[in-house]
Each structure stands twice: as structure tokens, then as C-alpha cells.
Amino acid sequence: MNVPADLKYGRTHEWARTEGDVVVVGITHYAQDQLGEVVYVELPEVGIGANAAEELGTLESVKAVSEFNSPVGGEVVEVNDRLEDEPNLVNEDPYGEGWLVKISGTTEGEDLLEAADYIAMIEAEST
Length: 127
What we know:
This protein is of the alpha+beta class and 127 residues long. It has one domain (8-120): CATH 2.40.50.100. The chain contains four helices and nine strands. The protein has helices spanning 29-35, 82-85, 89-92, 115-125; strands at residues 8-9, 14-19, 22-27, 38-42, 49-50, 55-61, 65-69, 74-79, 101-104. Strands 1-2-3-9-8-5 form a six-stranded antiparallel sheet. Strands 4-6-7 form a three-stranded antiparallel sheet. The two termini are 16 Å apart.
């Protein structure tokens, strides 16, 4: 299971990486694996407010449609426009080119998990 130690994780399988005063958000390798091949991504508008643990958009796969939540609060300052034409990036590179949104905010003080705690949560869900 691919769970980078330098990221923070939401309980609904999103990851967050702080880059200066922006938090980059995507879904985890585990989440994309459970979803299957992503064929469409609906992203929020730039400029909208994002509340921690609330829906930001949806991911449509060959199996299902699933929402993704914001792991942090703030304002959406950028979306990954490449996903409009290449939604499969979410599957191929979930921690890199498959990122979803960038939010002005911080991962500090939020209810986010460290990598080891996220792995333990996944293992507990699987039993």
C-alpha cells in the first residue's frame, strides 16, 4: 500500500500536502484503488470556500460515483484542469499529477492523520 509519510490524511481517504501557504489535496492510492478506473472528475470552482470534512467534488469511475471532501478549511485557489481531459491521472499518479485542488489554508490543527495512523485505519476497516 502506497502511503507517503510526508502527507496528512483525512478519514474519508483524501491526502493533504502543505506547500507554502497552500494545501494541495488529492485522494489516496487506497481510495483510487477502491474506486477503480476514474473516467470523470467534477471539481469545484476556484474562489469557493472549502470547509474541512465537507464535499468539494465528485469522482466517477466505471464502478461508482464518489464524492471527495476537503481535508482542510480555506478557499479553493486552483483546480487541476488536466483532469478534465485526463481523469485517469487520479489512478496513475494519485500523489503527483493526479492532485485535485489547491486550498489556501493549513493542515495544522485539523483532524488529519499521520501516515501510520491512516494505515491502521485502513487495516481496521478491512477486517
